[in-house]
Amino acid sequence: MNLLVTGGAGFIGSNLVRHLVRTRPGDRVVNVDKLTYAGNLRSLADVESAPNYRFVRGDITDVALMTRLLAEESIDAVVHLAAESHVDRSILGPEEFLRTNVMGTFALLEAARATWRDGRRGRFLHVSTDEVFGSLGDTGAFTEETPYAPNSPYSASKAASDHLVRAYCHTYGLDVVTTNCSNNYGPYQFPEKLIPLMILNARGGKPLPVYGDGLNVRDWLYVQDHCEAIETVLERGRTGETYNIGGNNERRNIDVVTALCDLMDEALGVEPAGPRRRLITYVKDRPGHDRRYAIDASKIRRELGWEPRFVFEQGLRETIRWYLDHQEWLEACLDGSYREYYERNYGEKR
Hints:
By secondary structure, the chain is an alpha/beta fold. The chain is built from 12 helices and 12 strands.
């Protein structure tokens, strides 16, 4: 297969590209990424020379570019991950979320529709989020039939893109599948999200900011588990269906942070000033903060045989160890020098 992965220099995207390049040597993996603030080609340095890999810098909203790329590479399947995804950023500036998440998905669908016609078939796998379902009470879990009720500009933009994907299947007969995943964590995540931010601050003895009372609940999915689930849906998912992907790891935010503090103390030793739990600082809650998410992933387990392999404590321990062992990668994110990597390694090839 010839696979196009959008957003392949981001957190989930880079993990997926690496997984596909290494485990499917007979397939060609083309990675298209605009390289915004969270797109980091250093995350793919270990596969950039692989014979079955190509990187293309491009904007998914460019219909002509996407159409040309699908034809040029004879793409058999698109795995669409490119998205603005940080809720706080969407509150501060929602326009870019609408442009990338809605119009970008529209452009890709149009490119796929133009390319896969005259009897040629291709698959469009759209990666979405559990945030489109809104907030749960103290019980229950999101299923594939849960009504959409997005509460942030980010989740609203993802909900809109989900609806577009569904419409292109039912109106134009495009072979689409959609996945809705829970909170991801693991290596190569940009240090603005909860877990890498807490690792960074805990290492430096800085305050660990926790929104509100810290009792918001999320289901945590280790990124390698997510990559394997995406591959499973790509291969065996039924056209027009959606599949929820969760880690079976519901945790309150404060419990995630305290567990992380204890593991950091174990890895680095307790600081002279005391255990790192002392750094936890409660800050004003963000607007529209959903109280609880939980995923019912029984459909993908029942129909496709996938289930997560990592329990949260194991995944968190491995994530902490990865960040502690990759200080250069982390420092490059903080000072912006990771952007120079593109110019140094790809700029002259444009």
